[in-house]
Design brief:
It is a multi-pass membrane protein. This is Gluconate transporter. With 456 residues, this protein is mostly helical. The chain contains 21 helices and no strands. It is globular and about 70 Å long.
């Protein structure tokens, strides 16, 4: 055996052990010592980074870089979403939407209605954007229907995360389609075929089962913020309330269509791309809510301003925790965990779909990023997929997307968003979020295998 190969094995084994120790230490620090998640993740990051051979100052820089990157991307979106949610609650817009949805689906039908609404809203949106828009509706729906919170929340979470994993134009599937030179339209059709059973099993079915076994109350601060009783003199109508929610959806969908159907440098394409940026789309929705939901319905400027300001305090811990998760992810990336898993994958010999799914699973577990998992997996497999038929390439792309959401845990920003928004304990978050995403991932894999056997 060559010395270089021995050194490679020693380094990679050390790196994987350090990842496991870091995650275990984070879980122990949060669940046993009751340290705040932010501090626990910071400690775990230094365990992973120094153990993997990075200098302490390199770990600190990587942590700061990762935290700044995720907060720059998701932090402002969460803040704008909190403002929008508070305005919708205070003005009665959330109550109006919830009342109308309750007329469409009562009792057993309600979780199915929530899953469908989440799929429609989440189709063009990043998961983080969709979640901050859906949380006020989830809280008000739970209050008005007198149903368990998880029975309402899980179908909504399943609807959004499944589309994020399996349906272009979401970033992960789109990256895989591009790298593998798959057909976009065919991938969207096959992705929708897989998404429907995944949403059903991970949403209404799993939500009904879990809500009977896990009792979760609406969290105090965010629950009070997002399900407050209406304060406006004249509550807004359903059309304008729904219009505010759908405004970012329409703007981001327009951006996607511009990228696909218009010349890249045309004026219309540039305008649609600008308006469809998540920051811009949500910012415009907040401004529209201020005018159309607040001022136009009898809320004074001071009252609207107070509502916007008070919405920011409850999300401070959430933002710090998400930033820490980004710091952990960046540290593991700079330690070389992606290269480690890539080397293992290059020597594997198994069916394409299973190989694609397993590589994406491993990368997601190690890095906490669906985008990193998808990009790296597609890059590894692209040379091997050159001769595949269009249907096969699309199914491989979908298998990668399915693998990228398997059992997301403490290094995932979505994990901490779900925990903080719904006031969950660590163990509860694993049941609500990690298991839900695992169901989506496994259904996606099984679906691609069945379609491969049937269509190829």
């Amino acid at each position: 055996m060559e010395l270089s190969h021995v050194a490679w094995l020693a380094h990679d084994s050390r790196l994987i052990v350090c990842c496991v120790l870091a995650i275990a230490s984070i879980i122990v620090l949060i669940s046993w010592t009751r340290l705040p998640p932010f501090l626990s993740i910071l400690v775990g990051t230094f365990i992973a980074g120094i153990g993997a051979g990075l200098a302490p100052e390199e770990v600190a820089k990587a942590f700061s870089k990762g935290a700044g990157g995720i907060l720059g991307e998701a932090g402002i979106i969460i803040a704008l979403g909190a403002m929008l949610g508070a305005l919708m609650a205070e003005t009665g817009a959330a109550d109006r939407i919830a009342s109308t949805l309750l007329k469409l689906g009562k009792g057993r039908a309600l979780p199915w209605v929530m899953a469908l609404v989440a799929m429609i809203i989440g189709l063009p949106l990043f998961f983080e954007v969709g979640l901050v828009m859906m949380v006020p509706i989830i809280f008000v729906m739970a209050r008005q229907s007198n149903q368990p919170l998880l029975k309402i929340a899980i179908p909504a979470l399943a609807g959004m995360t499944t589309l994020h994993a399996l349906m272009p134009p979401h970033p992960g599937p789109l990256i895989a389609v591009s790298a593998l030179h798959a057909d976009l339209g065919l991938t969207m059709l096959l992705g929708f075929t897989l998404a429907v059973p995944a949403v059903i099993l991970a949403g209404p079915v799993y939500g009904l089962w879990l809500s009977r076994r896990l009792q979760v109350a609406v969290p105090a601060e965010l629950g009070e913020l997002f399900s407050a009783r209406p304060q406006a003199a004249h509550p807004p109508g359903f059309a304008v309330s729904l219009g505010i929610i759908l405004l970012p959806v329409v703007l981001m969908l327009g951006s996607t269509l511009a990228k696909v159907a218009l010349p890249a440098e045309s004026n219309l394409a540039l305008v649609l791309k600008f308006l469809g940026e998540p920051l811009v789309a949500l910012g415009l929705a907040v401004l529209a809510a201020v005018v159309l939901l607040g001022w136009a319905n009898g809320m004074g400027r001071d009252q609207v301003g107070h509502t916007l300001r008070k919405s920011l305090a409850p999300i401070a811990a959430l933002l710090l925790t998400i930033g820490a998760g980004g710091g952990l992810k960046q540290t593991l990336l700079e330690a070389g965990v992606s290269q480690t898993i890539s080397k293992v994958a290059e020597g594997a010999h198994m069916p394409y779909l299973l190989l694609a799914w397993l590589i994406a699973v491993a990368l997601r577990q190690a890095t906490g990023s669906a985008t990193v998992a998808t990009t790296t997996t597609a890059g590894i497999l692209a040379p091997m997929m050159a001769g595949l038929a269009a249907t096969q390439s699309s199914l491989v792309a979908l298998a990668i997307g399915a693998g990228s959401v398997f059992f997301c845990h403490v290094n995932d920003a979505g994990f901490w968003m779900v925990r903080e928004y719904f006031g969950l304990q660590l163990k509860q978050t694993i049941w609500v979020w990690s298991v839900l995403q695992t169901i989506v991932s496994v259904v996606g894999l099984v679906g691609t295998l069945l379609l491969w056997a049937w269509l190829t």
